[in-house]
Specification:
alpha+beta
Length: 224
Amino acid sequence: LFPSHDRLISTIRKNGAVSFVSVEMPESIKVLDGFSVRPMLLATTSHNGSISTTYKQVATRVECDNLLARALGENTETFRARHSKNSNFRLQNVREALGFVHRMTEDIVAEVNKYANIKVSDREWEAIVNKLMPISTDANAPKQAISRIENKQERIKDMYRNDPRVAPFTGTALGVVQAFNTFNQHVIGKDENRVERNMMNALTGKVFNQDEQVMKVINELVLV
C-alpha cells in the first residue's frame, strides 16, 4: 500500500483509542529561502467513535512544523468513512489519495510564491491585526477581556517582526499568513496535547478555515 520511498509516521493518542498516520514525500520541497514544505497524506481513525476514518491532503512547513491546509488556502481532497465493525477498507481510494500527495508539489509552490509576492505595508499589517483580533470599544467591556486581546495583539506583532519562523517574510502576505498560522498552532492552547490538537484541526478543516479567514482579510485590506 505505502510506496517504499515515502515516509510513514504514526501516532497513537487517547490510550490507543485514536490513531494518526502521515505518509509523506521522501524529501522536502524548497520553495523559498527558509521556506520548505513536505506534502503528506494525514489519516486518522478511532476505536471510540470520536472521529470517522479520515484521509486528508495537507503539507507541513518543515522549518517550524506548521501544518498547512495544502498550499495555504485551497480546499483539499478528503476521504471519510464511518468507523464500524462492518465498515470496509476502501483500498482504491487510499491509493488514489497517495497519488495526490505526489501531485501536490506544483500547487504548493505556486500558492506560496503567490503570497510571497503580495506586499503588505506596516499600516496594512496593523489593520489586519485589528480586524482579526478586534479590541472592543464598548465602555462596558470587561477590562480583563480587553487586556487578553491586547496581549494577543502584542504577541503576534512581536512574532511578525522577530520570530524566525515568521520574520523572514515580514512585509508580505505570506508573512501575515505565517504569523497567524504559527500563533494558532504553537501559542494557543496547552502544550501537552498540541500535536494531537493540530492534527485534528487539520483533519476537521479548522486549520484551513483559520488560514482562509486570514486570506479573506488580506484580500479586503490589501488587494483592493
